[in-house]
Amino acid sequence: MSILQALDRYYQRLLARGEEGLSPFGYSPEKISYAVLLSPDGRVVDVNDIRDTSGKKPLPRLMNVPQPEKRTVDIKPNFLWDKTSYVLGVSASSKRADKEHQAFKTWHEASLAGTADPGLQALLAFLTAWTPERFAMPFTPDMLDANLVFRLDGESTYLHERPAAQAARDRLLDGGDGESTAAAATCLVTGERLPIARLHPAIKGVNGAQSSGASIVSFNLESFTSYGKSQGENAPVSEQAAFAYTTVLNHLLRRSEHNRQRLQMGDASVVFWAEAASEDEAQAAEELLAAAWTWDDTPTDAQEAGALRAALVKLAQGQPLRDIDPRLHESTRIYVLGLAPNASRISVRFWHVDTLGDLARHVARHAQDLRIAPAPWKTMPPLWRLALVTAPSRDGRAKSEDVPPQLAGELMRAVLSGSRYPGSLLVNTLMRMRADGDISPVRVALCKAVLARRQRLSRSTVHDTEEEVPVSLDRQSTSPGYRLGRLFAVLEAAQRSALGGQVNATIRDRYYGAASATPASVFPVLLRNTQNHLGKLRKEKPGVAVNLEKDIREIVEGLSDSFPSSLRIEDQGRFAVGYYHQSQSRFPKDKPDAADASDDTDTTDEGAPE
Fold first, then answer.
1. Phi first, then psi: what are they for 80, rounded to 5°?
2. pLDDT, tens digit, for every residue of 532-588?
3. Which residues, 6 or more positions from 229, have their beta carbon under 8 angstroms from its beta carbon?
4. 48 - beta bridge partners?
5. Under DSSP, is residue 447 helix (H, G, I), strand (E, B) or coil?
6. Which of 360, 402, 357 is CA-nearest to residue 384?
7. What is the Rg, in whole angstroms, of the alpha carbon atoms belonging to the chain?
8. By the 8 A CB rule, do 38 and 148 touch?
9. Preceding omega of 405 cis (within 30 degrees of 0)
10. Cα dihedral sign for 513, 519, 525, 531?
11. In this structure, how many other beta carbons lie within 10 angstroms of the beta carbon of residue 32?
12. Between the ranges 18-32, 288-302, 484-498, where is the mean pLDDT highest?
């Protein structure tokens, strides 16, 4: 199924269930600030401020109104609403307000001619009598360039909501006489012969795209056209289908604290939805995926947080979906769409369609590949956080726009499909660790995940004798990279133990990058310096000195006679894992289930101490 077909079907489902904020064909949610109250003879009775005043400052209210015209430089009035330059002929910025108002007046007089509706008659009377010079009380200067709607005094419905207005709107969409003015062709989305959209409505909400909106489907140069066709005729999509897919996409991309079907992966704005036998089953699947992909460890409701955490742990363990929620079914269809800005258009970063059963198994495998002990989290980190650790830090914080664009999309695709993680994920993670010295647990877990998945998938096609990447500290590992990472952690521990609070920068701050890439150039020097630290410890903390010497001896005995001159990227990843395991082994496990969390034989446990 194509992207537009899936979006069109989702729109029809949401519309059928009465989804709040979703507009019917020909309408769209727009920011409205004021309502002009008219008497039956067209006089202005009052102007109501209908803005949302719940915040620090009044904000326009989103209201379903007739879909706005797509304006560039042309003067095109909207039906039964618009900004003050069109409605009243006054503006703080437009230099052609008089022409815009005249267009608004002329179009409505033609569109509403012969109407018997009292409200629409009042609007026509208002337009006949109104002149911009009459802009005074109850109008005020702060209303300039705001969007206005109309209401008949004494009634609660706005003019654009009246049945007569909606019927007039339908006639306009049909071209006025029931026959569309647009050329008819077979719609690529519905397969029916319908009027084709010349221009598709704008898509808003994609990070980095134009604030006024951009398009997935558009043709604005001759090089993009063929056979004498122009604009939308090159990819025939009916007006209804174009409206449906853009409306539901704007709904999914909306910025709201209640919208959990949207997440940001680098420069890609990602939306997802489910399709099941019932709406209840579809919503259950969407809630599970929202928890898995957008979980941020700070839910507001404690009871909800506990339920989500339990569900995520079961998902990561690969338990049957019915054990997580009886409403979850293996056959439920899942759609994931990643969109990224591209000049005046929107590019599709990725498009993935799968069943919930397969997707759940891929997420569980992702959690298993990511698993490292001791576990640094209670639930697996959300994807946006994994992508964020590959971005450079600015003032101590990384930003999503700094994540390499292709990397974020490939990471999402790998998790969704169960395929290999991108090779650049390991490279970028190692580069960031060398650059800022932050050997964080999430970064180490990413290194481990890339290596574990690559090895597992390679073993399925070719004979691979390389040892597995351990989940917890493995003293038997013979991997040079892993052992050198362990050795580096022990040498750092010796420095910290000997110098205590007097050390401003440890060897990790100064030598981690060189030690993990070119061990032969660094480790001989570090070992000589460690003898000084051990000498001090033998006098002050003999027990600590004995344990450190024992660890150094055990690790070095498993290495070759000389340090390698360089390590491959894969071994540098193992270096990070070995460093993490060895450094974490220094801390006492004072929680009762910490031992379970670090037991590498339990491959199904999330490993999260509660």
1. 70, 10
2. 999 999 999 999 999 999 999 999 999 988 999 999 999 999 999 999 999 998 754
3. none
4. 35
5. helix
6. 402
7. 32
8. no
9. no
10. positive
11. 20
12. 484-498
